[in-house]
Amino acid sequence: MNPRFTRSQMRTPSGHVLIVDDTPKNLQVLGSVLRQAGHDVSVAVDGEKALEAVARARPDLILLDVIMPVMDGFAACRALKLDPDTSDIPVIFLTAKTETEDVLKGFELGAVDYVTKPFQTEELLQRVDTHLTLARLRAEREDRILELQDALALIKRLHREQEAFLRHEVNNALGPISGYAELLTDSAGDCLSERQMTWLAHIRDGTRMVENLLVAMKRLQSFEQEDVSLNLRRTDLLELIRDLLDTGIQKSGPGQLVFDVASDGPFVVEADRDFLPGVFTNLIKNALEHIAEHLDASDLRVRVTIAREDEDVLVSVHNGGPEIPADRLERFFDKFNSTKMDRGGTGLGTTYAAVVTRAHGGDISVTSTRRDGTTVSVRLPAC
Q1: Could you tell me if 125 and 99 lie in one domain?
Q2: Total domain count for the chain?
């Protein structure tokens, strides 16, 4: 292996050009022209010598003759492009042949350009400079991408560590609060007034809410870090949602749940039954809570619809409440987007729905208008 530098460290504005030609006069003339233009030059007399030269010192660009003994230019170019360490070196063919077939063959092998012999000095230098510049720009872009990827990885790691630290510290602080609240409740008897008992109840409820929030955050973080291995099984989504509506949704307030089957099945998907039901539980509860906040809405129903569309199963959760403002709609699946966090909401329900849906290879979207209300659509690949 050659010493590795960041690829954007190639010399500018000149570069190292390797000339490969079996004619000494061509090597002399080309070398003189390129050196006068400020380039460093090395030479080889056939394809094999060219590969040896590249192994010793990686050039920034190669001028490669086509017809040579031992190994011709096409074979040398093919070898260069098959090697990951040299595949990105720009190759310009030098040829006296201008037949379309030969030109196309050079491009198919990975050459970036060709120059016909006898060459025009200005044309040659312009082509060399153009491809050196393009190579530098590509190298700088790739170096920048690597830097950004490293920075993003660092940010994600710091974010994970911060969340883990906060969960640990908050749990430590909640323990005594929750424990002493329970002790006071159990031992108070008739010593506390009704008002004081209400205060204790608020303390217990508040600590439970924070504990639930921490659990939800940890679960979400596991999905975001791809630390969760899904136990996928063939699951009838129609049965799963019916079970949820019968037993898993604690409905409160005036909202009415309606379930529609909008097409023929089957509605079978690959699902982890420990995680996927939470998608629909969160979305339905969110819709019911939205209705409960707006009793003046013209339609107090939450309609859950399942349908088969092409190769997917589509489940939509619709409520007829007021339109969600555009700024909130953009953040609908973001963490802590809820307006109900002061009333026990975690602000993570829709985020959980989005993360788990995508982990199942599905897609989730939301629309909201004044006329039609709000619809969240979950699309999962059918079996």
Answers
A1: yes
A2: 3
Is the Cβ–Cβ distance between 236 and 267 less than 8 Å? yes
- Amino acid letter, residue 64: L
CA distance 42 to 35: 10
pLDDT of 247 above 80? no
Query: When comparing pLDDT for 246 and 142, which is higher?
Result: 142
Contact between residue 258 and residue 303 where contact means Cβ atoms under 8 Å apart: yes
Three-state SS at 298: coil
Tell how strand 373-381 and strand 312-319 pair up: antiparallel
Peptide bond into 254 cis (omega under 30): no
Cα–Cα distance between 30 and 124 in angstroms, integer? 9
Contact 349, 339 (CB under 8 A): no
Is the residue at 318 inside a domain?
Answer: yes
* Single pTM value for the model: 0.50
> Same domain, yes or no, for 50 and 121?
yes
Out of 89, 112, 145, a domain closes at: 145
Percentage, residues of the chain above pLDDT 70: 86
Instruction: Give CA angle at 274 (332, 349), nearest 5°.
Output: 15
- Quick: pLDDT tens for 276-290: 988 998 899 888 888
Q: Which domain holds residue 135?
A: 7-145
Question: Which pLDDT belongs to residue 18?
Answer: 97
